[in-house]
């Protein structure tokens, strides 16, 4: 499905590059894994090849996708529930979906809410996590540095 060198996104963890395919024995069972290097935090992640579809692994967006993400960040925020619990669940579903456009909405909406009313500790963590995942994908999509992408995101949301 994917090859060494492919730039892919692991929902809830971020984007990375497949460095190798390895076979490992875990709990007495041999399985094949993609070994993925994450550009942010210089972390390695092993993803079971048999679970790729269930996990929702996908390729990093192209330049058109980047433009759409930046447009979403610039747009006005979409309506969110005033109920903290509902809002949190809705945003978590969007992050877990692996859809970068829904992820961009979460970053935009929570950032906007943080400026207006502030966020709870849980929502602040969610915003930081969502922003980190978005930054990791844009770093690979634009072949840029983390600081440049963070500045770009702030510029579009200003």
Describe this structure in words.
The chain has 158 residues and is of the alpha+beta class. It folds into 2 domains: 7-59, Thrombin, subunit H, CATH 2.40.10; 63-157, Methane Monooxygenase Hydroxylase, Chain G, domain 1 (Up-down Bundle). The protein has 6 helices and 5 strands. The chain has helices spanning 52-55, 63-74, 84-97, 100-116, 121-142, 146-157, and strands at 7-10, 14-26, 29-38, 43-48, 58-59. Strands 4-3-2-1-5 form a 5-stranded antiparallel sheet. Strand 2 (14-26) and strand 3 (29-38) form a beta hairpin. Helix 3 (84-97) packs antiparallel against helix 4 (100-116). The chain is globular, with a radius of gyration of 17 Å. It starts with 6 loop residues before the first strand and ends with a helix. The model has no long low-confidence stretch (mean pLDDT 93).
Number of strands: 5
Radius of gyration, in Å, reads 17 Å
Q: State the CATH class of the largest domain.
A: Mainly Alpha
CATH-defined superfamily of the largest domain: CarD-like, C-terminal domain
List keywords for this structure.
158 residues, alpha+beta, Thrombin, subunit H, Methane Monooxygenase Hydroxylase, Chain G, domain 1, five-stranded antiparallel beta sheet, 6 helices, globular
């Amino acid at each position: 499905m994917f090859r060494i060198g492919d730039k892919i996104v692991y929902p809830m963890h971020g984007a990375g590059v497949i460095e190798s395919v390895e076979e490992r024995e875990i709990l007495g069972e041999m399985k094949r894994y993609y070994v993925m290097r994450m550009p942010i935090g210089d972390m390695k992640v092993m993803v079971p090849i048999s679970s790729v579809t269930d996990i929702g692994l996908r390729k990093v967006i192209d330049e058109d996708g980047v433009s759409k993400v930046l447009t979403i960040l610039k747009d006005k925020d979409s309506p969110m529930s005033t109920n903290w619990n509902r809002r949190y669940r809705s945003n978590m579903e969007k992050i877990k979906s692996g859809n970068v456009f829904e992820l961009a909405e979460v970053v935009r909406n929570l950032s906007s809410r943080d400026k207006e009313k502030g966020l709870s500790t849980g929502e602040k963590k969610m915003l930081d996590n969502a922003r980190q995942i978005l930054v990791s994908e844009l770093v690979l999509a634009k072949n840029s540095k983390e600081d440049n992408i963070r500045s770009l995101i702030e510029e579009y949301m200003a």
